[in-house]
Automatic annotation (TrEMBL):
This is ABC transporter ATP-binding protein. The keyword Ribonucleoprotein does not apply. It comes from the Archaea. Belongs to the ABC transporter superfamily. Residues 1-60 are annotated as: Disordered.
């Protein structure tokens, strides 16, 4: 496994945590080759439970299987349960999105899966192999980019980085030359392929980092905030390339992002975390059809400051746009609330110049499930 993570362990990391975690946290600052050695030499001792057989999910291959994972930081009343009995499977050849507000436990979960944090309980299997019993075998087909990280070799050119990361993931770079050229072209890096990474802009470095993750033969990749800092076009290109790799090459992706549009567009399935637990696990369509929240946009010349103020008090108002005469107001409500809203407007003799209902998006579902305000994510 290679992990691109430039974040160095902070004093917070490892405090009051098992020894294995210090080793793992330290490993994240090493070179990928060194990390392999750490992988080899510092296997945490856990009960043997991995048989190495391939798991299935209703007859389909499972790439990642997480069962009963728990991680607490600290002891006593100040202890924080970052991951609380989390279980899920990821089907081979799919993209699963991990969403959650700040502090929900996403990073701790991903680091536990990757062996960078030692969980207190639970098991993780990658392609049927227990990661704690046989880390080298389990992680052989895994690559990751964490925390929007950029940890390529800045003195090497873009192309050299791709070749390097392919080599250390055990792939002959010549055999994946086509993949590299396509990644370079699709991510808009072709004309910078022979430029040292240090001379590129921040957004370009992010793209190189992503290309490096996809450069080897990894069958399972973990991407934390992969589109952070990318312009709209590059973000879309990356999403297309991910889907292509999934559909044509059977790549499995676990992706965490605060960008709901990215998750909604690219993911087959979404896990929503809140306070260390998975509070939703379903396809985007199922999550959208399961929500009772509606956004209603009402424009009226009669919406004066006093009426708007009452509406703000009584309904979940997400935006007010004053007009030359009256205003346009955006309200989020469920079915009963909609009747109440219209009844209220009628009682106030507000004429409805325009009423628009807006289909709920993933962000509405997220707000519903995590009680987080849209602007507070
Ligand atoms: N090494 C650590 N020591 C102590 N507490 C920690 C440590 N790492 C994480 N935590 C705590 O665990 C909880 C989950 O943190 P985590 O970073 O996993 O959340 P997250 O969902 O990734 O958040 P964000 O979206 O902000 O990155 C938080 O309360 C955090 O403060």
């Amino acid at each position: 496994m290679t992990v691109r993570d430039t974040r160095r362990p902070t004093s917070r990391e490892g405090a009051g945590t098992p020894l294995g975690e210090d080793v793992a946290a330290d490993a994240s600052s090493r070179s990928p080759a060194e990390k392999r050695a750490v992988d080899e030499g510092s296997e945490p001792t856990r009960n043997a439970s991995g048989s190495g057989e391939t798991s299935t999910m209703e007859g389909r291959d499972v790439a990642v299987s997480v069962t009963g994972l728990c991680k607490r930081f600290g002891d006593g009343p100040d202890a924080i349960t970052a991951v609380d009995d989390v279980s899920f499977d990821v089907e081979t050849g799919s993209i699963v999105g991990l969403l959650g507000p700040n502090g929900a436990g996403k990073t701790t979960l991903i680091k536990s899966i990757l062996g960078m944090v030692l969980p207190d309980a639970g098991s993780v299997r990658i392609r049927g192999v227990d990661v704690y019993d046989r880390p080298r075998k389990a992680y052989a087909s895994v690559d990751a980019m964490l925390e929007g990280a950029r940890n390529d070799y800045w003195r090497l050119t873009v192309r050299e980085n791709l070749r390097y990361f392919a080599t250390i993931s055990g792939v002959d770079p010549a055999s994946v030359r086509d993949r590299h050229e396509r990644l370079l072209a699709q991510l808009g890096l072709a004309d910078r392929a022979d430029v040292p990474v240090r001379d590129l802009s921040r957004g370009m470095k992010q793209k190189v980092s992503l290309a490096s993750v996809l450069a080897g033969g990894a069958a399972v990749v973990f991407l934390d905030e992969p589109t952070l800092g990318l312009d709209v076009e590059s973000s879309r290109t990356l999403q297309r390339e991910l889907r292509r790799l999934v559909e044509q090459e059977g790549l499995t992706v676990v992706l965490s992002s605060h960008d709901m549009d990215v998750v909604e567009t690219v993911c087959d399935r979404v896990l929503i975390m809140s306070d260390g637990e998975i509070v939703a696990d379903d396809s985007v369509d199922a999550l959208l059809s399961g929500t009772d929240r509606h956004r209603v946009q009402i424009t009226s010349r009669d919406l004066d400051a006093a009426i708007v103020s009452t509406l703000r008090d009584r309904f979940e108002t997400i935006g007010v746009d004053p007009r030359d005469s009256g205003a346009r107001i955006d309200v989020t409500t469920d079915g009963d609330g909609l009747y109440e809203l219209l009844g209220h407007l009628r009682a106030e003799n507000v004429r409805l110049d325009r009423v628009r209902t807006i289909e709920p998006d993933l962000e509405d579902v997220f707000v519903d499930l995590t009680s987080i305000e849209r602007e507070d994510r």
